[in-house]
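Listing 4. Sequential folding, example run.
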Amino acid sequence: MLAKFLPLPLSMPATLPAAFGYPLNATHEAHRFFGAYWEPGGDELMITDGANAYTSAIYEGWIAFHNHPLVAPLWGLLQDRGMHFGSSEEPATHILIVDRVEQKLYAASINEGRSFLATQHPRRETVRLTRHEWEQLAAEITKKMRGIPAPSQEEIIAVYQASVATVQAMIAELDALLVRLEDGVVAP
């Protein structure tokens, strides 16, 4: 199915997944492929790997990538071809597929991209719960969540500073690639 997608003529910066907020945290299993697009409802970066979908706290990574001088002209060409990855005003019709192993980027329609991402996960059987079982599960989850302490201000600042450093590292990678491209050393 990957052959149906448009490969982008741009090397994926090694720091791009982290700069986009993937994986979500240390306990979230990272998969080979994930997708990213912008959601107008809340003006948020959406991340999905086919099993999990969430809004990324590191939206600055998407904005920095999208607006970088190496990427912006390509983004414009994709939009001219009717590929829209979402904005503050419009929902996405396309999704950026990231191959973390091959370090390649692809454009796909949002429905085909989501379907493709789901194929990297084993099919799970639907779990049916009675109302009583559901209420017990909800109570157990609520109890566990109440036991999780809120992060301190210092912890929040440390996480934010780490995300800023990650985005800056991605920008530095893109800048270096742009310089090498301008010098005729490598293709994008």
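-- end of first protein; second protein begins --
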Amino acid sequence: MHDFKARRLSAGLSQAALGAMVGCNQTTIGRVEKGKETTPLLLKAIDAALPKTGALPKTGALPTIPGAATPADLSGMLATATAAMHEKIELQAEIIGSQRETITALKQTIVALEKRLEERKDART
């Protein structure tokens, strides 16, 4: 069994902070600490990231997991997601504008039909 939790707490790290250091999330760190996650590469990365003495590792000495997203990758993903959201918002604004025009046209049609109905009623009397 690993002493990851004690070492993490000794270093003053949250599960989320440790997860960010090794490229996983807080839930995964929790599973590792409970012995439910035993992926060797992840265990090795966590072991390397946590100081043996409780001191925080120096920046740049942090291990990475092959295939894990880098800050540049995350920045690119965020930019892509932001652009996609802006496109959706613009499309929704166009749809709302179109719906408003349709509602206005329907209201005008109803008014015209009500007027014609009144005219027919007046013509019969």
